[in-house]
Amino acid sequence: MADRKPIESWLTDMDGVLIHEGVPIPGAEDFLKKLRDSGRPFLVLTNNSIYTARDLHARLRRMGLDVPAENIWTSALATAQFLNDQRPGGSAYVIGEAGLTTALHEVGYVLTDHEPDFVILGETRTYSFEAMTKAVRLINDGARFIATNPDNVGPSTEGALPATGSVAALITAATGRKPYFVGKPNPLMMRAGLNAIGAHSETSAMIGDRMDTDVLAGLEAGMRTFLVLSGVTQPQDVDRYPFRPSQTVDSIADLVDLI
After folding, report:
1. β-pairing, 118-121 with 91-95?
2. Of 94, 128, 167, 217, which shows the fewest CB atoms inside 10 Å?
3. What's the pLDDT at 157?
4. Structural domains in the chain plus CATH codes
């Protein structure tokens, strides 16, 4: 770590790092303010594809956290960019919310259930059996299978919720086709985010609360990684993985002085 270049750009996960169950984590406001004041490039990342960047800006602002929409990078935005690069002007059958459908519309995709190029699975509040059945049949008919992220569960105030990865497993069991996951830990999402803010991996850091997505994605993208223990990962969990973060801290408050 002594040979690493100074950190000039920051990427941070949202849930478990900046907020927990709709409440800001102590230190998050100070960290974001110092980032804004420093003028250093930064992004807040989330694998959740439900909300648009503008939605998340408004939700965070209501919690007292000021993150401009242009500093928010979601798995929905990463998925739309990936598809636009791979097959511009394509078509897709989408299971998801406004965050995903808006991102796809903005890159010129047509949303249809008639011979789509792709079936795209994202996060949604209500997974419809009818929609999943349609997805299975379209994939069997040749549509390519994409999912915004591999998270099996998501957080809520009531406890864990089944998320995109769980539903993707159901569709895979019915079709024999595994999806291509765009979101973390795919380094594609990280590199696209770095490109969006003009940052370089060797001078960037990733902060997250999950070893299997945040830390792994940062590691594979060539960034310095910080694990915070304010989310899902507990200290005893770290040694279970064959890789390690650059540094482990209690919370985002411990990183304010690094900016």
Report:
1. parallel
2. 128
3. 65
4. 9-47+184-258 (3.40.50.1000), 76-181 (3.40.50.1000)
